[in-house]
Amino acid sequence: MTTRTDDAAPVRPVSLGGPLIRFRVAAYATGVALLGLVVEMLLQYVFGVELPQFVKMIPMVHGGLYLIYLLLAIDLAIKARWSMKGTLLVLIAGCIPFFSFVMERKVTHKIQAGAKL
């Protein structure tokens, strides 16, 4: 009695090009919106500058972009099979100024090298 292992279909690697590009765009957009939010808060609360109404919408813009960032990061994490720790670090990166830019670079290098986060 022999068992054949060659009957199993070969596992095709998942292409991460599309999810990675979407994540990168979301990371940059979230990072820029967060920097805008920090500037807006400094002007308003530290320096007491009365800002126009459209500037006061920056928190909502950042919040919306952050939700998109979360969804795209989770999508990439599932497809790239990241660890829980790596996934949580990437998810938190959208809340810390400049950290989303740093994590975007790290994620891009890891994905292109075929390594897990």
From TrEMBL:
Query: Entry's Pfam families?
Result: DUF3817
| Residues spanning the membrane | 25-47, 53-74, 86-103
- For whether the record's keyword set contains Transmembrane, the answer is yes
Give the superkingdom in one word. Answer: Bacteria
Listed A to Z, the keywords are: Cell membrane, Membrane, Transmembrane, Transmembrane helix
Location comes to: Cell membrane
* Keyword Transmembrane helix appears in the UniProt entry: yes
Please state every residue range assigned to the domain named DUF3817: 22-108
State the annotated membrane topology for this chain. Answer: Multi-pass membrane protein
Where's it mainly located? membrane
Q: Which NCBIfam families match?
A: integ_memb_HG
Q: What is this protein called?
A: DUF3817 domain-containing protein
The species this protein belongs to is Amycolatopsis speibonae
